[in-house]
Design a protein that fits this description.
The protein has 231 residues and is an alpha/beta fold. Helix content is 42%, strand content 19%. A six-stranded parallel β-sheet has the order 2-1-3-4-5-6, with helices on both faces.
Length: 231
């Protein structure tokens, strides 16, 4: 858990939006993402967010949907638990955070690789859960890329409240056919309630993308809101 200075400096009155992150353990991605939030909110290029890291217990189980691919079934004793993981976030974690901390209704989620797959899957299957979805090198190749086909239908038909999707893609990810197909779908999607950004980062690999991509993403989707002035 990271609470920005704006939370402590408000004399107990400020309410802040919440950014959830799978792969959010202290030995995972939490520390460098918390550092980014601290720096960006400090220099005024990102709105303050409460950051909630979710430490993994069985990563490949929790962050993946079902698969029929025999090779993917070999990577872990159990896979395909993303629906149960989403239920945990919605019914247990979110109410706990709302109870213990001063939050607004705005929520985002950020993740990379399998956590990025979970981010995109959540947008496609349960878009109401978050307002902003940020994914870096999402593993959309999972289950022969079935999620990409589901995303195509969702992008054509979605009529719900406004959502934001940001995808950052390394040069490794750009080589994967399902990733290229998702990028093409986004570029050709009709204007709807989903605001999307697709950012190739050819100088980055799958191993290096998270930090530089998050820097750009947070400045883009969480930038401070401008105030209109009247003369």
């Amino acid at each position: 858990m990271y609470l920005p200075a704006a939370y402590a400096d408000s004399s107990g009155t400020a309410r802040l939006p919440v950014l959830y992150m799978p792969d959010g353990g202290m030995a995972e991605d939490f520390l460098h993402v918390a550092g980014l939030v601290q720096v960006l909110t400090g220099n005024g290029t990102m709105r303050p967010f409460i950051l909630v890291g979710i430490e993994n217990t069985q990563r490949r189980r929790d962050l993946t949907g079902p698969t029929t691919n025999p090779e993917e079934l070999k990577i872990a004793p159990r896979v395909g638990g993303s629906a149960a993981y989403r239920t945990f976030i919605r019914t247990e974690l979110m109410p706990l955070i709302r109870q213990r901390y001063r939050t607004t209704a705005e929520m985002g989620i950020v993740g990379e690789s399998l956590a990025g797959l979970f981010v995109v899957e959540t947008l496609v299957l349960e878009p109401a859960l978050f307002d902003t979805y940020v994914a870096f090198d999402p593993s959309v190749w999972w289950n022969q890329g079935q999620l990409v086909g589901q995303a195509e239908k969702m992008l054509r038909t979605y009529k719900g409240s406004a959502k934001t999707l940001y995808i950052g893609s390394s040069r490794d990810n750009e080589k994967i056919p399902q990733s290229r197909r998702l990028a093409s779908l986004l570029r050709g999607a009709p204007k709807s309630s989903i605001i999307w950004y697709y950012q190739p980062l050819p100088e980055e690999t799958h191993a290096t993308i998270y930090h530089p991509a998050a820097l750009q993403a947070f400045r883009t989707v969480f930038k401070p809101k401008t105030r209109s002035t009247s003369k």
